[in-house]
Specification:
It comes from Rhizopogon vinicolor AM-OR11-026. Keywords: Membrane, Transmembrane, Transmembrane helix, Ubiquinone. This protein has helices at about 1-20, 25-50. It is mainly α. The model has no long low-confidence stretch (mean pLDDT about 85). The longest helix is centred in the middle third of the chain and has 27 residues, at about 25-50. It is built from two helices and no strands. Helix content is about 60%, strand content about 0%.
Length: about 80
């Protein structure tokens, strides 16, 4: 059973080594792994705990009135 977990133990020890000897590489690994996790969890947290609702989509066209068009009067530019 111990051989089953030995790759994880070696990975953990390697991360400890990187944290002490090369912290830039360690923190870049931490941030690189945290990005996808946060991308999946933050929208759900915003919706459930903070009550966030997306903004209403603005209209892209002007609504046309549902009546016949009136002829324009008073602007005789002939």
């Amino acid at each position: 059973m111990a051989t089953l977990f030995s790759p994880f133990r070696r990975g953990y020890r390697h991360l400890q080594y990187l944290a002490h000897e090369q912290p830039v590489i360690f923190y870049s690994c931490v941030l690189g792994l945290a990005g996808p996790v946060l991308a999946l969890t933050v929208p759900a947290v915003r919706r459930t705990w903070f009550g966030y609702t997306p903004a209403e989509i603005p209209p892209t066209t002007y609504p046309v009135p549902k009546r016949p068009r009136r002829l324009v009067q008073g602007y005789e530019d002939e």
